[in-house]
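Lab intake sheet, docking and co-folding queue.

SAMPLE TYPE: protein with bound small molecule
LIGAND NAME: S-adenosylmethionine
LIGAND FORMAT: SMILES
REQUESTED OUTPUT: full 3D complex as structure tokens
PRIORITY: normal
SUBMITTED BY: R.K., bench team

The fields below were copied directly from the construct record.
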Amino acid sequence: MPEGMPVLGIEGGDGGAAVARQYGDVAPIYDTLMSGVPHRAWLERIERAARERGRVPRSALDVACGTGIVTELLAARGYSPVWGVDLSARMVTIARTKALARNLPITYREQDAAALDLEGHAFDLVVSLFDSLNYVTDPAALRSAFRRVFLHTAPGGLFAFDLNSLYALANDLFSQSGTDGPIRHVWHAHWDRENRLCRVEMSFWVRDEATGETRHFTETHVQRAYTVPEITEWLTTSGFTRIEVFSGYGNRPPGPRSDRLLFVAERAA
Ligand SMILES: C[S@@+](CC[C@H](N)C(=O)[O-])C[C@H]1O[C@@H](n2cnc3c(N)ncnc32)[C@H](O)[C@@H]1O
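RESULT FIELD (auto-filled):
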């Protein structure tokens, strides 16, 4: 991958049950698969964007938090309160178990981002990292997610998220394979240009170190590609202002061959 990292997705964020079902198998190995992702540097980049805007966020919400990798980093960096939300029950269960074991004061909810409803809480920083929102394959659901996030962003707060670009999904960057310790993966991507959908047939082989046995399972993940103009328009109509777009993990301006785009938007104070 040009940006150096694997891209892991899941099927249709608007498809609720399908998403949760898929993460039944991937969930336990998710953290191992993600071990090379520079989440900390990503958060530092987002915090720099906040500082450049004169903002000092204190509370944080992680939308589509998965197993809580970023959520835990937020708690460790002193944000309070910290909440995490994900559609997959299995991912949320793992996140909760980890937070409990590490004594981290994080509140997790199993929810669809498109119907986000956190009891009236609003946060200074809302993040949704690692192309989670590409899995919301229905544009109406993504627009709804933006509106719901806006309602949960405090005045003066920031919303930062990344997406796999159209370039990435249309150019087969999801087809990849590799071995990481006991886990081998082989992914084949299929691009549906008309609907801008990337379907990825994923195979995993997981070796149990204790027994020496290998378990094989497959999943089909679907991501939708969104363009910068449509995302910018939907953020704006949801109420967000001062929208910035970066390439990759936020270190360069976006270009035609950017495979990952980082968006930072703001709710006016
Ligand atoms: C690739 S993982 C990223 C997880 C986490 N953000 C990270 O950086 O490790 C994508 C996550 O998005 C979640 N997801 C997909 N659609 C969603 C939706 N509509 N609402 C909430 N979570 C969703 C999945 O359950 C999955 O945990």
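REVIEWER NOTE: Helices lie at 17-26, 30-33, 39-52, 69-76, 89-101, 139-151, 166-170, 228-238.
SIGN-OFF: pending second check by T.M.
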